[in-house]
Design goal:
The chain has 194 residues and is mostly helical. 70% of the residues lie in helices and 0% in strands.
Amino acid sequence: MPKIVKLFLFLICPLFLLLGGAYGLAKVGVIPVKKLVAKNKAARSLAHLIGLDSPKLPAVQVAPAHAVVPDPLAAQKKELEAKNAAFEKQRADWEAVQKSQANAAETKVREQDTAVDPKSITRLAAVYEQMPADTANKIFTKLPDAEVIALLRKMDEKKVSQILTIVAPDRAARLTLSLSKPVTPASPTPGDTQ
């Protein structure tokens, strides 16, 4: 290999790499160039010539942890939250209307169901008198108190006593109190005739 190539490979290339690395480190501020050239005028002019005395690139300023950075999307977020709140209120209002309509429909159906024909009550009372007391009680547990009272008023007292002995004590007490009160013409029981 010729001597010039050896000289280039073993001396000049590493020198350029070393100088390039030092220049890069000085440019980013790892090597304090300003302190090194402060006493030597020739070094200062050399640093100026190769561009090391120019100020560093402005560093990225990091806000302190306690500083509050304004959110650029704050206005859009507030608007979205307001729209969401309005939508939720509208949905709640709609659900309330739906619930009240369902309750009204249910009440109407219940009122229609409680308007029982007195002849039907008399006929049903006769049917329940023929049943065993425990079977009639199973059916009565599914009926509202007003209907049960109307049926019991039309039934034989002996059968009523058999049924009341197997009814739950709290319901039997309620039924007994209702049966003991006289039926007034202003508020007839669904099964009573007028």
